[in-house]
Amino acid sequence: MSRDVGIFRLGNIVLKIVVGDITEFAGDAIVNPANTYGYMGGGVALAIKMRGGRAIEEEAIGQAPIPIGSAIITTGGALKVKAVIHTPTVVEPGGSSSPENVYRAARAAIKKAIENNFKTIAFPLMGAGIGGVSPKESAKAMVKAFEEFRDREVEVYLYIRDPDIVAVVAEACSK
Hints:
alpha/beta
């Protein structure tokens, strides 16, 4: 069961922090913080593949390599979305990320969503799991990317699994 825990405005963008499972999101697209090869073997990527189906990963691999700072779109499979946007935060599967990679990935994903007229997009905290970026730094980097598109009317849902980090993420989103 998901629940909204914070709502912020970044110009015309509405940013909602949600505690819950991103694979339950119903909207236009879910963002997968990918690796450059398109493999979906761990973290959020594995959860998306497990719930949405292997076809998502097969399409992503078919479009690889995906450079950091770019994004591709695949089917949403059995998920309640039109598409999955894959944008690398790491080069190698299981590799470490950085706030700069998170920023570049978030920027590429929201740009790709806007190009495809998606109005509701769910992001996880990118790079903050296996990638090793702190939740605060991840949220700050993502908000920096979203700010660049503040003139666009988009609803962004930022999913977090751990309710104990809500305050840290909300603080990063409010600056």
